[in-house]
Amino acid sequence: MSDRYKFRVWDKELKTYLDPEHFYITGEGRGFTCEHKKGMYSMCYEYMGTDRFVIEQYTGRIDFNQKDVFKGDNVKARLKIRGKYKDAVGVVDYDKTHSAFVVKTENWGIQFLYDCMNLEVIGTIHDKEQS
């Protein structure tokens, strides 16, 4: 899929990702979820200003299994550290200082996502929370 702006939404109460067909984000950043019944939307709820949902943005990268990479994904990657390639595991995040997606690793600090090779999504930060 070639969507420039894609998001997924984690529901902290239900401990699951919402169906992307039923969650909408406006240009102003307001989030809505709608219940779909009998071919029509019966109820829409606005979730602006609540911490119930975690909105995770698509990074524009696809891993070697053709899986979209989102903020909040746990990934494995090969990184070039001081001229040598190292395998690392980390969490994808957005770094406002550099205006770029990064991988936060325990052993190698913060690495730019666009520098990562052999990228593979191995889970999300919510895996332990899922029912």
Describe the structure.
The chain is mostly beta strands. The chain has a domain of 66 residues: Roll (SH3 type barrels), CATH 2.30.30. It is 0% helix and 58% strand. The chain has no helices and 12 strands. The strands form 3 sheets. Strands 11-10-9-8-12 form a 5-stranded antiparallel sheet, with no helix packed on it. The chain has a 4-stranded antiparallel sheet with strand order 2-1-6-7, with no helix packed on it. Strands 3-4-5 form a 3-stranded antiparallel sheet, with no helix packed on it. Strand 10 and strand 11 form a beta hairpin. The radius of gyration is 17 Å and the shape is elongated.
How do the helices and strands line up, and which of them pair or pack?
Layout: E1 7-11, E2 16-17, E3 23-25, E4 31-37, E5 40-46, E6 53-62, E7 68-70, E8 73-81, E9 84-95, E10 100-105, E11 109-112, E12 117-124
Major sheet size, sense and barrel closure: 5 strands, antiparallel
Mean pLDDT: 83
Helix content: under 10%
Shape: elongated
What's the CATH first level of the domain at 59-124? Mainly Beta
| Cα gyration radius (Å) | 17 Å
Order of helices and strands: EEEEEEEEEEEE
DSSP summary, beta strand count: 12
